From TrEMBL:
InterPro entries: OMP/PagP_B-barrel, TPR-like_helical_dom_sf. The keyword Signal applies. SUPFAM superfamilies: OMPA-like, TPR-like. Keywords: Signal. This is Outer membrane beta-barrel protein. Residues 1-21 form the signal peptide. Coiled coil: none annotated.
Length: 472
Protein backbone atom coordinates (compact mmCIF):
# COMPACT_ATOMS: atom_id res chain seq x y z
CA UNK A 1 0.00 0.00 0.00
CA UNK A 2 2.85 2.40 0.80
CA UNK A 3 4.27 1.92 -2.69
CA UNK A 4 0.87 2.59 -4.29
CA UNK A 5 0.47 5.79 -2.30
CA UNK A 6 3.91 6.98 -3.38
CA UNK A 7 3.10 6.30 -7.05
CA UNK A 8 -0.25 8.05 -6.64
CA UNK A 9 1.44 11.12 -5.18
CA UNK A 10 4.07 11.15 -7.91
CA UNK A 11 1.45 10.90 -10.68
CA UNK A 12 -0.63 13.69 -9.14
CA UNK A 13 2.40 15.99 -8.97
CA UNK A 14 3.41 15.10 -12.50
CA UNK A 15 -0.07 15.85 -13.86
CA UNK A 16 -0.20 19.19 -12.01
CA UNK A 17 3.25 20.17 -13.21
CA UNK A 18 2.38 19.19 -16.79
CA UNK A 19 -0.58 21.61 -16.91
CA UNK A 20 1.79 24.50 -17.58
CA UNK A 21 3.26 22.88 -20.68
CA UNK A 22 -0.20 21.98 -21.97
CA UNK A 23 -1.56 25.48 -21.42
CA UNK A 24 1.29 27.01 -23.41
CA UNK A 25 0.32 24.89 -26.39
CA UNK A 26 -3.44 25.57 -26.30
CA UNK A 27 -5.05 28.61 -24.67
CA UNK A 28 -7.71 27.53 -22.16
CA UNK A 29 -11.25 28.48 -23.03
CA UNK A 30 -14.51 27.89 -21.17
CA UNK A 31 -14.57 24.26 -22.27
CA UNK A 32 -11.17 23.64 -20.69
CA UNK A 33 -12.39 25.03 -17.41
CA UNK A 34 -15.60 23.03 -17.61
CA UNK A 35 -13.61 19.82 -18.07
CA UNK A 36 -11.94 20.39 -14.70
CA UNK A 37 -15.07 21.33 -12.79
CA UNK A 38 -14.42 18.46 -10.40
CA UNK A 39 -11.67 20.60 -8.88
CA UNK A 40 -14.26 22.44 -6.79
CA UNK A 41 -15.27 19.24 -5.05
CA UNK A 42 -11.93 17.42 -4.97
CA UNK A 43 -10.91 15.63 -1.80
CA UNK A 44 -8.20 17.40 0.22
CA UNK A 45 -4.61 16.48 -0.66
CA UNK A 46 -3.47 17.65 2.80
CA UNK A 47 -5.21 18.46 6.05
CA UNK A 48 -7.39 21.60 5.64
CA UNK A 49 -6.13 24.71 7.36
CA UNK A 50 -9.59 26.18 7.75
CA UNK A 51 -11.77 25.48 10.75
CA UNK A 52 -14.09 22.50 10.03
CA UNK A 53 -17.11 24.72 10.75
CA UNK A 54 -16.20 27.02 7.83
CA UNK A 55 -15.39 24.37 5.22
CA UNK A 56 -18.96 24.37 3.85
CA UNK A 57 -18.86 28.16 3.44
CA UNK A 58 -15.49 27.94 1.73
CA UNK A 59 -16.83 25.31 -0.66
CA UNK A 60 -19.84 27.46 -1.50
CA UNK A 61 -17.58 30.44 -2.21
CA UNK A 62 -15.33 28.26 -4.40
CA UNK A 63 -18.37 27.29 -6.49
CA UNK A 64 -19.21 30.96 -7.03
CA UNK A 65 -15.63 31.81 -7.99
CA UNK A 66 -15.43 28.84 -10.32
CA UNK A 67 -18.46 30.12 -12.22
CA UNK A 68 -16.75 33.51 -12.56
CA UNK A 69 -13.63 31.85 -13.96
CA UNK A 70 -15.77 30.09 -16.55
CA UNK A 71 -17.16 33.44 -17.65
CA UNK A 72 -13.84 35.32 -17.54
CA UNK A 73 -10.75 33.04 -17.66
CA UNK A 74 -8.39 36.02 -17.54
CA UNK A 75 -9.66 37.40 -14.22
CA UNK A 76 -6.52 37.02 -12.07
CA UNK A 77 -8.09 38.34 -8.87
CA UNK A 78 -10.81 35.68 -9.03
CA UNK A 79 -8.26 32.98 -9.77
CA UNK A 80 -6.08 34.03 -6.85
CA UNK A 81 -9.02 34.02 -4.45
CA UNK A 82 -10.16 30.61 -5.73
CA UNK A 83 -6.64 29.20 -5.29
CA UNK A 84 -6.35 30.68 -1.79
CA UNK A 85 -9.62 29.10 -0.70
CA UNK A 86 -8.60 25.78 -2.27
CA UNK A 87 -5.40 25.92 -0.25
CA UNK A 88 -7.37 26.54 2.96
CA UNK A 89 -9.61 23.58 2.13
CA UNK A 90 -6.55 21.33 1.64
CA UNK A 91 -7.05 20.97 -2.13
CA UNK A 92 -3.52 21.99 -3.06
CA UNK A 93 -3.64 20.33 -6.46
CA UNK A 94 -6.83 22.22 -7.32
CA UNK A 95 -5.11 25.46 -6.37
CA UNK A 96 -2.04 24.54 -8.41
CA UNK A 97 -4.10 23.66 -11.47
CA UNK A 98 -5.88 27.01 -11.29
CA UNK A 99 -2.75 29.11 -10.92
CA UNK A 100 -0.77 27.25 -13.56
CA UNK A 101 -3.54 27.88 -16.09
CA UNK A 102 -3.26 31.59 -15.27
CA UNK A 103 0.39 31.69 -16.32
CA UNK A 104 -0.72 32.02 -19.94
CA UNK A 105 -2.51 35.26 -19.09
CA UNK A 106 0.25 36.64 -16.88
CA UNK A 107 3.55 34.94 -17.74
CA UNK A 108 6.37 35.77 -15.33
CA UNK A 109 4.14 37.46 -12.74
CA UNK A 110 6.17 37.25 -9.47
CA UNK A 111 3.09 36.97 -7.25
CA UNK A 112 1.75 34.08 -9.31
CA UNK A 113 5.03 32.19 -9.31
CA UNK A 114 5.47 32.80 -5.58
CA UNK A 115 2.07 31.29 -4.78
CA UNK A 116 2.79 28.27 -6.98
CA UNK A 117 6.13 27.78 -5.28
CA UNK A 118 4.44 27.84 -1.85
CA UNK A 119 1.84 25.26 -2.94
CA UNK A 120 4.43 22.87 -4.37
CA UNK A 121 6.51 23.34 -1.21
CA UNK A 122 3.54 22.28 0.90
CA UNK A 123 3.15 19.17 -1.27
CA UNK A 124 6.81 18.33 -0.70
CA UNK A 125 7.71 18.78 -4.40
CA UNK A 126 10.78 20.85 -3.58
CA UNK A 127 12.46 20.87 -7.00
CA UNK A 128 9.31 22.15 -8.71
CA UNK A 129 8.79 24.67 -5.91
CA UNK A 130 12.35 25.90 -6.33
CA UNK A 131 11.80 26.41 -10.07
CA UNK A 132 8.85 28.71 -9.38
CA UNK A 133 10.63 30.53 -6.55
CA UNK A 134 13.64 31.19 -8.79
CA UNK A 135 11.29 32.49 -11.48
CA UNK A 136 9.55 34.77 -9.00
CA UNK A 137 12.76 36.70 -8.27
CA UNK A 138 14.36 36.54 -11.71
CA UNK A 139 12.77 39.73 -13.05
CA UNK A 140 14.15 43.28 -12.74
CA UNK A 141 11.34 44.78 -10.60
CA UNK A 142 10.53 42.15 -8.00
CA UNK A 143 8.61 43.53 -4.98
CA UNK A 144 10.75 43.33 -1.85
CA UNK A 145 8.13 41.37 0.17
CA UNK A 146 8.07 38.74 -2.59
CA UNK A 147 11.86 38.51 -2.65
CA UNK A 148 12.08 38.18 1.14
CA UNK A 149 9.47 35.43 1.26
CA UNK A 150 11.12 33.54 -1.60
CA UNK A 151 14.52 33.65 0.11
CA UNK A 152 13.00 32.19 3.29
CA UNK A 153 11.45 29.31 1.34
CA UNK A 154 14.63 28.64 -0.65
CA UNK A 155 16.60 28.34 2.59
CA UNK A 156 13.96 25.96 3.97
CA UNK A 157 14.16 23.85 0.80
CA UNK A 158 17.92 23.55 1.22
CA UNK A 159 17.31 22.13 4.69
CA UNK A 160 14.45 19.82 3.74
CA UNK A 161 16.25 18.29 0.78
CA UNK A 162 18.87 16.97 3.21
CA UNK A 163 16.37 14.62 4.88
CA UNK A 164 16.36 10.84 4.60
CA UNK A 165 20.15 10.80 4.75
CA UNK A 166 22.95 9.70 7.02
CA UNK A 167 25.93 11.95 7.74
CA UNK A 168 28.61 12.29 10.34
CA UNK A 169 32.13 13.19 11.29
CA UNK A 170 34.80 11.27 13.23
CA UNK A 171 37.80 13.10 14.72
CA UNK A 172 40.82 11.36 16.20
CA UNK A 173 43.87 13.05 17.64
CA UNK A 174 45.93 14.22 20.60
CA UNK A 175 45.17 16.87 23.21
CA UNK A 176 47.48 18.55 25.74
CA UNK A 177 46.22 20.44 28.80
CA UNK A 178 48.16 22.49 31.30
CA UNK A 179 45.65 21.57 34.04
CA UNK A 180 43.96 18.34 32.99
CA UNK A 181 42.44 17.62 36.41
CA UNK A 182 40.96 21.14 36.83
CA UNK A 183 42.67 21.62 40.21
CA UNK A 184 44.04 24.82 41.81
CA UNK A 185 47.54 25.98 41.06
CA UNK A 186 48.10 27.47 44.53
CA UNK A 187 48.60 25.02 47.39
CA UNK A 188 47.19 27.46 49.97
CA UNK A 189 43.40 27.36 50.35
CA UNK A 190 40.98 28.56 53.04
CA UNK A 191 38.30 26.31 54.59
CA UNK A 192 35.83 28.00 56.99
CA UNK A 193 38.27 30.84 57.59
CA UNK A 194 41.27 28.60 58.28
CA UNK A 195 44.23 28.34 55.90
CA UNK A 196 45.32 24.88 54.72
CA UNK A 197 48.15 23.65 52.50
CA UNK A 198 47.24 21.15 49.79
CA UNK A 199 49.37 18.13 49.11
CA UNK A 200 51.13 18.25 45.76
CA UNK A 201 48.92 15.44 44.43
CA UNK A 202 45.88 17.73 44.78
CA UNK A 203 47.30 20.51 42.58
CA UNK A 204 46.73 21.00 38.89
CA UNK A 205 48.76 18.76 36.58
CA UNK A 206 49.42 18.85 32.88
CA UNK A 207 48.70 15.77 30.81
CA UNK A 208 48.23 14.51 27.28
CA UNK A 209 45.43 12.31 26.04
CA UNK A 210 44.48 10.56 22.84
CA UNK A 211 40.84 11.01 21.86
CA UNK A 212 38.23 9.85 19.36
CA UNK A 213 35.04 11.88 18.93
CA UNK A 214 32.08 11.10 16.69
CA UNK A 215 28.92 12.96 15.72
CA UNK A 216 26.33 11.18 13.57
CA UNK A 217 22.94 12.28 12.22
CA UNK A 218 20.21 10.34 10.46
CA UNK A 219 17.08 11.78 8.79
CA UNK A 220 14.06 9.77 7.76
CA UNK A 221 11.45 11.38 5.49
CA UNK A 222 7.97 10.98 7.01
CA UNK A 223 6.35 11.87 3.64
CA UNK A 224 4.11 14.47 5.24
CA UNK A 225 4.79 18.05 4.08
CA UNK A 226 8.44 18.15 5.10
CA UNK A 227 8.16 16.27 8.42
CA UNK A 228 11.00 13.93 9.28
CA UNK A 229 12.36 11.64 11.95
CA UNK A 230 15.78 12.66 13.22
CA UNK A 231 18.33 10.72 15.24
CA UNK A 232 21.68 12.00 16.50
CA UNK A 233 24.46 10.14 18.25
CA UNK A 234 27.43 11.82 19.92
CA UNK A 235 30.36 9.81 21.25
CA UNK A 236 33.67 10.68 22.89
CA UNK A 237 36.52 8.63 24.30
CA UNK A 238 39.83 9.75 25.83
CA UNK A 239 42.81 7.92 27.36
CA UNK A 240 45.31 9.95 29.44
CA UNK A 241 49.03 9.35 29.56
CA UNK A 242 49.41 9.82 33.34
CA UNK A 243 46.07 10.45 35.07
CA UNK A 244 44.13 7.33 34.12
CA UNK A 245 41.38 8.25 36.62
CA UNK A 246 40.37 10.85 33.98
CA UNK A 247 39.94 8.29 31.19
CA UNK A 248 36.55 9.12 29.69
CA UNK A 249 33.87 7.36 27.66
CA UNK A 250 30.68 9.17 26.67
CA UNK A 251 27.68 8.46 24.43
CA UNK A 252 24.40 10.32 23.99
CA UNK A 253 21.49 9.48 21.67
CA UNK A 254 18.57 11.75 20.76
CA UNK A 255 15.61 10.57 18.69
CA UNK A 256 12.34 12.19 17.67
CA UNK A 257 10.22 13.83 14.95
CA UNK A 258 10.76 17.24 13.36
CA UNK A 259 7.61 19.01 12.15
CA UNK A 260 7.52 21.59 9.38
CA UNK A 261 5.48 24.53 10.75
CA UNK A 262 4.32 25.75 7.34
CA UNK A 263 1.06 23.92 8.16
CA UNK A 264 0.50 26.71 10.70
CA UNK A 265 1.56 29.40 8.21
CA UNK A 266 4.94 29.89 9.88
CA UNK A 267 7.34 30.15 6.96
CA UNK A 268 10.79 28.57 7.18
CA UNK A 269 10.27 27.09 10.63
CA UNK A 270 10.40 23.66 12.22
CA UNK A 271 9.76 22.17 15.65
CA UNK A 272 11.65 19.11 16.86
CA UNK A 273 10.66 16.92 19.79
CA UNK A 274 13.08 14.27 21.00
CA UNK A 275 14.01 11.85 23.72
CA UNK A 276 17.47 11.75 25.31
CA UNK A 277 19.47 8.80 26.55
CA UNK A 278 23.13 8.95 27.56
CA UNK A 279 25.88 7.79 29.84
CA UNK A 280 29.44 8.56 30.99
CA UNK A 281 32.20 6.26 32.22
CA UNK A 282 35.04 7.95 34.13
CA UNK A 283 38.23 6.22 35.21
CA UNK A 284 36.77 2.87 34.22
CA UNK A 285 33.77 3.27 36.57
CA UNK A 286 30.14 4.16 35.68
CA UNK A 287 29.81 7.86 36.42
CA UNK A 288 26.56 9.22 35.00
CA UNK A 289 23.37 7.91 33.41
CA UNK A 290 20.91 10.41 31.98
CA UNK A 291 17.49 10.32 30.33
CA UNK A 292 15.14 13.10 29.31
CA UNK A 293 13.20 14.96 26.66
CA UNK A 294 13.88 18.06 24.60
CA UNK A 295 12.41 20.48 22.09
CA UNK A 296 14.13 22.45 19.35
CA UNK A 297 12.53 25.36 17.43
CA UNK A 298 14.32 26.60 14.29
CA UNK A 299 13.20 29.68 12.33
CA UNK A 300 14.79 31.13 9.23
CA UNK A 301 14.39 34.87 9.76
CA UNK A 302 15.68 35.39 6.25
CA UNK A 303 17.92 33.50 3.84
CA UNK A 304 21.04 34.39 5.87
CA UNK A 305 19.73 34.42 9.46
CA UNK A 306 18.71 31.46 11.56
CA UNK A 307 17.15 31.49 15.04
CA UNK A 308 17.30 28.40 17.26
CA UNK A 309 15.46 28.02 20.58
CA UNK A 310 16.19 24.88 22.58
CA UNK A 311 14.84 23.45 25.82
CA UNK A 312 15.61 20.18 27.63
CA UNK A 313 14.73 18.29 30.76
CA UNK A 314 17.05 15.55 32.01
CA UNK A 315 17.17 13.31 35.03
CA UNK A 316 20.81 12.69 35.94
CA UNK A 317 21.82 9.71 38.06
CA UNK A 318 25.42 9.88 39.32
CA UNK A 319 27.17 6.71 40.52
CA UNK A 320 29.54 6.52 43.49
CA UNK A 321 32.89 4.76 43.07
CA UNK A 322 36.06 4.20 45.08
CA UNK A 323 37.62 7.30 43.53
CA UNK A 324 34.45 9.42 43.80
CA UNK A 325 32.51 8.12 46.82
CA UNK A 326 30.10 11.09 47.18
CA UNK A 327 29.33 11.97 43.58
CA UNK A 328 25.80 10.54 43.93
CA UNK A 329 24.94 13.70 45.89
CA UNK A 330 24.66 15.39 42.47
CA UNK A 331 21.81 13.11 41.36
CA UNK A 332 18.70 15.06 40.41
CA UNK A 333 16.82 16.94 37.70
CA UNK A 334 18.33 19.31 35.18
CA UNK A 335 16.63 21.97 33.04
CA UNK A 336 18.50 23.54 30.11
CA UNK A 337 17.42 26.35 27.79
CA UNK A 338 19.12 28.46 25.12
CA UNK A 339 18.45 31.00 22.40
CA UNK A 340 20.96 31.21 19.55
CA UNK A 341 21.17 33.25 16.39
CA UNK A 342 23.41 32.71 13.39
CA UNK A 343 23.91 35.21 10.56
CA UNK A 344 25.85 34.86 7.34
CA UNK A 345 27.43 38.28 6.89
CA UNK A 346 29.07 37.28 3.62
CA UNK A 347 29.63 34.10 1.61
CA UNK A 348 32.84 33.64 3.62
CA UNK A 349 31.90 34.71 7.15
CA UNK A 350 29.23 33.46 9.60
CA UNK A 351 28.71 35.00 13.02
CA UNK A 352 26.78 33.54 15.93
CA UNK A 353 25.70 34.31 19.49
CA UNK A 354 24.02 32.24 22.18
CA UNK A 355 22.40 32.98 25.56
CA UNK A 356 21.56 30.07 27.81
CA UNK A 357 20.47 28.98 31.25
CA UNK A 358 21.00 25.75 33.17
CA UNK A 359 19.29 24.68 36.41
CA UNK A 360 20.39 21.57 38.35
CA UNK A 361 18.33 20.38 41.32
CA UNK A 362 20.63 17.92 43.12
CA UNK A 363 19.95 15.76 46.15
CA UNK A 364 21.93 18.20 48.30
CA UNK A 365 21.66 21.98 48.24
CA UNK A 366 25.37 22.73 47.85
CA UNK A 367 25.40 20.75 44.57
CA UNK A 368 22.23 22.47 43.27
CA UNK A 369 23.17 25.31 40.94
CA UNK A 370 21.76 27.92 38.58
CA UNK A 371 23.91 28.86 35.59
CA UNK A 372 23.75 31.64 33.01
CA UNK A 373 26.04 31.47 29.99
CA UNK A 374 26.79 33.64 26.97
CA UNK A 375 28.95 32.95 23.94
CA UNK A 376 29.73 34.80 20.70
CA UNK A 377 31.93 33.92 17.78
CA UNK A 378 32.34 33.43 14.09
CA UNK A 379 33.73 31.23 11.33
CA UNK A 380 35.67 32.47 8.31
CA UNK A 381 36.33 30.51 5.11
CA UNK A 382 39.38 31.59 3.14
CA UNK A 383 41.49 30.36 0.25
CA UNK A 384 44.36 28.06 1.13
CA UNK A 385 47.56 30.14 1.56
CA UNK A 386 49.67 27.24 0.27
CA UNK A 387 49.25 24.67 -2.48
CA UNK A 388 47.03 21.76 -1.38
CA UNK A 389 45.68 18.59 -3.04
CA UNK A 390 42.18 20.07 -2.81
CA UNK A 391 40.82 23.52 -3.63
CA UNK A 392 38.44 23.55 -0.66
CA UNK A 393 38.77 26.64 1.57
CA UNK A 394 40.30 26.59 5.03
CA UNK A 395 38.05 27.50 7.96
CA UNK A 396 39.11 29.51 11.00
CA UNK A 397 36.83 30.00 13.98
CA UNK A 398 36.83 31.83 17.27
CA UNK A 399 34.45 31.61 20.25
CA UNK A 400 34.41 33.72 23.41
CA UNK A 401 32.24 32.83 26.38
CA UNK A 402 31.24 33.70 29.91
CA UNK A 403 29.53 31.52 32.55
CA UNK A 404 28.17 32.52 35.97
CA UNK A 405 27.06 29.91 38.53
CA UNK A 406 25.24 30.39 41.85
CA UNK A 407 24.86 27.41 44.19
CA UNK A 408 21.88 27.10 46.52
CA UNK A 409 23.44 26.32 49.91
CA UNK A 410 26.83 26.63 51.58
CA UNK A 411 29.05 23.55 51.50
CA UNK A 412 29.92 23.05 55.19
CA UNK A 413 33.40 21.82 54.28
CA UNK A 414 34.24 25.26 52.86
CA UNK A 415 31.88 27.69 54.58
CA UNK A 416 28.94 27.66 56.99
CA UNK A 417 27.51 30.94 55.68
CA UNK A 418 28.46 31.56 52.03
CA UNK A 419 27.26 29.41 49.12
CA UNK A 420 29.65 28.83 46.26
CA UNK A 421 29.77 31.30 43.35
CA UNK A 422 31.91 30.88 40.26
CA UNK A 423 32.68 32.96 37.21
CA UNK A 424 34.24 31.42 34.15
CA UNK A 425 35.60 32.97 30.98
CA UNK A 426 37.00 31.19 27.96
CA UNK A 427 38.28 31.76 24.46
CA UNK A 428 38.81 29.10 21.81
CA UNK A 429 40.27 29.23 18.32
CA UNK A 430 40.01 26.52 15.68
CA UNK A 431 41.46 25.87 12.25
CA UNK A 432 40.28 23.24 9.76
CA UNK A 433 42.50 22.43 6.78
CA UNK A 434 41.06 20.14 4.06
CA UNK A 435 43.65 17.69 2.79
CA UNK A 436 41.49 15.63 0.41
CA UNK A 437 37.82 14.88 -0.23
CA UNK A 438 36.02 14.59 3.13
CA UNK A 439 39.32 14.50 5.06
CA UNK A 440 40.78 17.40 7.03
CA UNK A 441 43.26 18.33 9.75
CA UNK A 442 41.71 20.11 12.74
CA UNK A 443 43.69 22.18 15.22
CA UNK A 444 42.33 23.94 18.31
CA UNK A 445 43.68 26.07 21.16
CA UNK A 446 41.77 27.41 24.13
CA UNK A 447 42.20 29.17 27.46
CA UNK A 448 39.74 28.80 30.35
CA UNK A 449 39.83 30.77 33.61
CA UNK A 450 37.56 29.83 36.56
CA UNK A 451 37.29 31.97 39.67
CA UNK A 452 35.36 30.84 42.77
CA UNK A 453 34.87 32.06 46.34
CA UNK A 454 35.80 28.46 47.26
CA UNK A 455 39.57 28.42 46.65
CA UNK A 456 39.64 24.72 45.75
CA UNK A 457 37.54 25.38 42.63
CA UNK A 458 39.60 28.25 41.19
CA UNK A 459 41.87 27.24 38.34
CA UNK A 460 42.89 27.99 34.78
CA UNK A 461 43.72 25.70 31.90
CA UNK A 462 45.42 25.98 28.51
CA UNK A 463 44.46 23.33 25.97
CA UNK A 464 45.75 22.50 22.50
CA UNK A 465 44.72 19.68 20.19
CA UNK A 466 45.48 18.30 16.76
CA UNK A 467 43.38 15.72 14.97
CA UNK A 468 42.32 14.13 11.70
CA UNK A 469 38.64 14.37 10.72
CA UNK A 470 36.68 12.22 8.30
CA UNK A 471 33.27 13.41 7.08
CA UNK A 472 30.73 11.25 5.32
Amino acid sequence: MTGLRRWSRALKRLSAGSLLAASLAVAPGPDAFAQSAATTSAEPNVAPRADPATLAQIQARRDVLFARMLANPGDLDTAFEYAALSSQAGDLEGAIATLERMLIFAPGLPRLQLELGVLYYRLGAYETAKTYFDGAISGPNVPEPVRAKVETYLAAIDDNQAIDTFSGVIVSGLRWQSNANAAPGDSRIRLNGVDFLLDGSALGKSDTNGFVAGSFRYFRDLENQGDRLEATLKTYGALYADQDDLNTGLAELTLGPVFDLQRFRIDGASLGLYGILGGVVLGGDPYLATAGVGSNFVKLLDRRTRLVVNGEYRHENFKDSDLRPTVSDRTGDRFIGSVAIQHQFSPAFIGFASLGGDRRDADVGYDSVTEVNLSVGGRLNFAAPIAMPTNDPWTAGITLGYVHRDYDDPDPVFSTSAAQETEEGFVEGTLEVPIRDNWSVQAAASYRDVRSNYDLYSYDNVSTSLGIAKRF
